[in-house]
Write a structure and sequence with these properties.
This protein has 70 residues and is mainly β. It contains one helix and six strands; from the N terminus they run ββββαββ. It has a single domain (2-69), classed as Aminomethyltransferase beta-barrel domains (Elongation Factor Tu (Ef-tu), domain 3, Beta Barrel). Helix content is 9%, strand content 53%.
Length: 70
């Protein structure tokens, strides 16, 4: 389970897929909009390769950038 930040004002549905180079590498387990951060924060199940990549992921639907919080 990893913490993620999503560059969007729209909260993705639970189960939304996360992509790295067009390959599915995880899914959202929970998310909520943070008015303080002005973005969506949440938790996601991620493959190890996605966490180790240190690059932005993308939501499969909508293409919003997703970063893994450490």
């Amino acid at each position: 389970m990893s913490r993620v930040q999503i560059e969007s004002n729209t909260v993705p549905a639970v189960g939304s897929k996360l992509l790295l180079d067009s390959k599915e590498v995880g899914e959202i387990t929970s998310a909520v909009y943070s008015p303080t951060l002005e973005k969506v924060v949440g938790l996601a199940y991620l493959r190890t390769e996605a966490v180790d990549a240190k690059r932005a992921l993308k939501l499969a639907e909508g293409g919003a950038a997703v970063t893994v919080s450490r």
